[in-house]
């Protein structure tokens, strides 16, 4: 078989797998948005049957043969062509997939399913001991997975690499430590300052919020013809297939900003998805997202750098006031200050922009210690509370508000948390670069013109798919290696504007 | 391998296939109810990829080995046990599936997809000539399919048997001819009579209709926790999996009865689906519907025998008047008469209960002639118009209102139409038997108590799955072989009550 035939086979195989994966995405979206209650028990089996088929396709020995026919051919001569990138990334996916024995994959899936149920109950009852054996099993299986995948430094690296290709403990630990130290210093600095006035807690009827969100998401570039906005208990974004990006929010009638920032955040994910998954590239690595960190950078940039900025509110406040008359008396700077308030709390998902990163560092340090065997599962609650005191200055009153608050570990997702902070870091790097690249970006945003920013992100991030490793992608887009500098400058500038510190 | 192991393998294989088929059902439901416009082109590929997997599973040679180990074992000793019925029906499905060469299956699927698109355009433009070559291809492939499947009488039998197991031209032609002659005589008899007064055409706001439908569908037994009611261009019912029956309607704000009868019709389908597809039997033939005719009998019974009856309106009119104040002055008999009006027209889907069956006979006679080669595709429009004059006394002004009005032939579904009339016939047989079995059924319905009827249908039809052939199932439920008699009695009694003929 010649290289071009083999490449065509890889592309066809990938496209069919992607078309099949659409079913899994749809089953999962439907479960969270549409599924009648009585059908919930059956959905796991439906998703499981599809997952097994996708796993078998991902490890199909033909892939190895086709790759061998492509590698070293003219298709791979220039590593920056889409073909070469696809072949390189197909190889990465195939080698990783075949390294995991089917028995381990099944054991992990079962433990994750059981672990998630046990975690839900344990959190409800504040009963860490009931969850502990599940966590121990998941840690053990994750260590086995790391050994199967292999690593140069330590087991954690193998797991992190699955979420953020190319990153290791050695590359992210210093950047996270810098974030921790600088942001906790910032938290200390604003501790005594006068907090901004909150927005009026008038009722914001759900129907009005919905109309407002349709307007705002369209304004920043989400095409209505290629998306849906629905309601779910936990807001999320999913791509079902080309031209089909779906986001969800949760409405709070006392605070319209929760659904707003949720919708803008998920719109950031959706814009990235629609930008990389064009119909002609869907099913190839060039039509896929490159990492969770880069995905998160897109949601965070639109949420934090855009929708929490003063220029955004200069354009959007009059629009919001038409939907919510109670906002009529406010100035854009009032909203900018209110939504930029810094208020450390115990719960990550409720954290403000500044407090968010210390939450992540706390989790990273603890999961690293667990993986290394430096921390025993039984000692996790105490270690969590101690770190919470040290980093946030707050002690959880119970484990439900402490080490049981997040779902990730119950699904065996160790190495996932750092991608949130990488997303924040990358978002700030990208926005600084966009401000340089786009003349008067703030002025354009204040005029409701977000198209230049979306176009810049589309060209520099979305359309690149998996052409470059995440860190190299950000470097190529911004002209310099990513650091925590831009994020820290962004947070400090905002603290200065709002708190005068 | 012993018989019990083989049976367990068949059951597991069947359950996984059913779990995978859920994805196809969901992709299809979503396409008609939720899908963003930009995603429509990609949906065919997603459904196609799933269909290919299901076809491969249905023809898996292991099935033949497992069946061989079961057949003749103690599991098949008593043909009326669920195990014996499952083995018999698995055999039927497997033998049919492997008889169709993959090339023919693919050619049929492609021709159906192309045919449907060509039909949509041809109907819009009233251009039969543009659709004719597609119809010729579909006829040719359907004849090949009939030859591959085999038949005792004629090719049409093989196709009909796929929709209505056990039926042949010889068994249904006489019953359909009787229906044609008796109902056209009835149409003649009411021709001069004074028609009942129509219902007020006041606006019936969609939100009010929706609330009313939720109430009515729950009243007749559709569990809200195991169903959804949505909107689509063409009303339909689908079972995604256990506990997940979804129906759709279309709202007309000038006429609330359109959505009402649509919803009750689809609820009849959904109740049957929920009744046979219990979680423990899902994926085995005992957990599947037995035929299209029996499926249609359930929708028609609830629509025609129940929701168009006087007792139904005695209970439901006061309820309807609460949602639609304009109905307040009416008596139940006014509504009963209005919704029982007989008004022959050209379009099948708009036909009243009496005119509906002649529409079906017209199509059956024409598709039979096409399959036999007695009618050429080019001569179809003329033959249609001639039969329309002879049977309905009406001549279509164009082919869009004539031989191009239905989608079925454009998808290659020859042999499908008769199942609609069989459904009407079976519905009337079942309702007559239920009236005998349930003391004072009319009185219970007038009191809003539909549970005894649903229970009787559940025990005698729903729970039986594919235990018996359709005709035997109806005979077992009613105590006698099904005939057109009960349906004709039902239609004549209604004509007498409304038109005094």
TrEMBL record, chains A, B:
Its cofactor is Zn(2+). Keywords: Carboxypeptidase, Hydrolase, Metal-binding, Metalloprotease, Protease, Zinc. Gene3D superfamilies: 1.10.1370.30. The keyword Hydrolase applies. The active site is at residue 266. Zn(2+) binds at residues 265, 269, 296. Its EC number is 3.4.17.19. Transmembrane segments: none annotated. This is Metal-dependent carboxypeptidase. It comes from Solidesulfovibrio carbinoliphilus subsp. oakridgensis.
